[in-house]
Design brief:
Blueprint: H1 30-49, H2 54-74, H3 82-91, H4 94-108, H5 112-133, H6 157-171, H7 178-192, H8 200-210, H9 215-236, H10 239-244, H11 251-256, H12 266-294
Helix pairs in contact: 2-3, 2-4, 2-12, 4-6, 4-8, 5-6, 5-12, 6-7, 6-8, 8-9
């Protein structure tokens, strides 16, 4: 598993930049055919190694997330200074990349049940770390959802990512009718509503996974859902930070550079497979404990 659909690679466009003579159907020499096969293969291999692999994209997402969370620590509330706003805009890169790789993991995993259970375990562990790091943390009662009357941001984003995985699983089940699928998606939206990024992250996972191989639709649906989130944030919480949510567009060029590869080094690949599972709750717990000390 990983933390969506793969943007399709463009095919090789040719062998050289020179203009070749029109082919008249004659002189099918073996040497020409071998040259064409070898040239196309080399170009395809070179293209596969260009761009960004999954490991690098995940590291970018982790760095952006860390910048965003440090900004919440150093500048609590809806700070309007240039530095906190910039860090929060950078942080918007993370969620689309996470949604992308949840859908990617769903497509490639050999055991969807184990994948879902891993996300569930991460959601439970990170729930406590997320609330400890939250600006709204009061005492241990804050770990109890809705205890202090708040509806939103009652748990971490992993809960919504898990919801997106379950949406994909449900919608790919050919034995389920459309009515059951719609009802299931709406129910998952309701259950994930109190999470960080609300049900929007779940719907983005669904839109990326169900439109795999069609980046135009993936982008359009994700931007539609995020726009809804931004409008609600704008009117219900804070106008500047509502507009700030649209910073997710910064993830589009990064995901467009994805080359479909995990990474070249197998040892690094194994480490990166588990890095987010460890780093996400750990860095939140550290931020939470630092926050308790400086209050």
């Amino acid at each position: 598993g990983a933390f969506g659909g793969v943007l399709p690679e463009a095919p090789p466009f040719g062998l050289t930049g020179k203009t070749a003579k029109p082919y008249n159907g004659k002189n099918k020499s073996k040497r020409v055919r071998r040259y064409r096969r070898r040239g196309s293969g080399e170009m395809a291999e070179q293209k596969a190694h260009r761009g960004l692999d999954a490991n690098l994209l995940k590291l970018i997402a982790i760095a952006a997330m860390t910048a965003d969370h440090i900004a919440w620590l150093l500048f609590p509330g809806y700070a309007t200074g240039a530095l906190p706003v910039t860090l929060h805009i950078i942080g918007r890169i993370t969620c689309p990349i996470m949604c992308f790789f949840i859908a990617e993991g769903f497509h490639y995993t050999h055991d969807r049940k184990k994948y879902a259970l891993r996300l569930l375990a991460l959601a439970v562990v990170s729930h406590f770390a997320y609330l400890l790091a939250s600006n709204s943390y009061v005492d241990w009662h804050s770990f109890i959802p809705f205890y202090y009357g708040d509806l939103l941001n009652q748990t971490g984003v992993v809960w919504s990512l898990l919801g997106g995985l379950l949406m994909l699983w449900l919608c790919e089940d050919e034995e389920r009718g459309m009515g059951v699928k719609v009802a299931g998606v709406l129910l998952i939206c309701l259950v994930t509503l109190p999470a960080d990024w609300s049900c929007i992250a779940a719907l983005c996972v669904l839109s990326i996974g169900s439109n795999r191989g069609n980046p135009q639709k993936q982008i359009a649906w994700c931007l539609f859902y995020v726009a809804i989130y931004a409008v609600v944030y704008f009117f219900a919480l804070d106008k500047l930070y509502g507009l700030l949510q649209l910073g997710v567009v910064l993830a589009i060029p990064l995901l467009a550079l994805y080359n479909g590869k995990r990474g070249k080094n197998q040892t690094v690949n194994r480490v990166m497979k588990w890095l987010f599972y460890i780093y996400y709750p750990l860095h939140l717990a550290i931020i939470g404990f630092v926050q308790l000390q400086i209050r």
